[in-house]
């Protein structure tokens, strides 16, 4: 249903039933959309006696959030952070060895960003010189 909403931009239960969910019961589509709304994945506006649902996130944003949450859970579940990280590197390498190079670039860019932020904090807030009248 999310795929259909991403493609359409928005839709009512009836529109989704007509377009892509004809094998499902109306109440199944309605319940699913309501649950996605309650999980904050969809927004909805009243339209007569129905609701018009719209995705709150793009496909890419949703995938990014889901992956981030999975990685957070994985890192917090393991007493040794190196275990999930080494497993992640293995999976990346299996999929595409060039991704490993890209991962290294991303890590280096993040290190530079963190060092710059630390340097800004250690310099303290800049205080403008007092007026000399």
Structural class: mainly alpha
Strand order of the largest sheet: 1-2
Q: What level of helicity do the residues show?
A: 55-70%
CATH superfamily of the largest domain: Winged helix-like DNA-binding domain superfamily/Winged helix DNA-binding domain
Q: What's the architecture of the largest domain in CATH terms? A: Orthogonal Bundle
> What is the overall shape?
elongated
Strand content: 5-15%
Overall number of domains: 2
How many helical stretches?
Answer: 6
Largest sheet: 2 strands, antiparallel
Taking the alpha carbons of the first and last residues, their distance comes to: 69 Å
H-E order:
HHHEEHHH
CATH overall fold name of the largest domain: Arc Repressor Mutant, subunit A
Calculate Rg over CA atoms. Answer: 24 Å
What is this structure's SSE topology?
Elements: H1 2-8, H2 13-19, H3 26-38, E1 42-47, E2 50-55, H4 59-77, H5 82-95, H6 97-122
Antiparallel strand pairs: 1-2
Helix pairs in contact: 2-3, 5-6
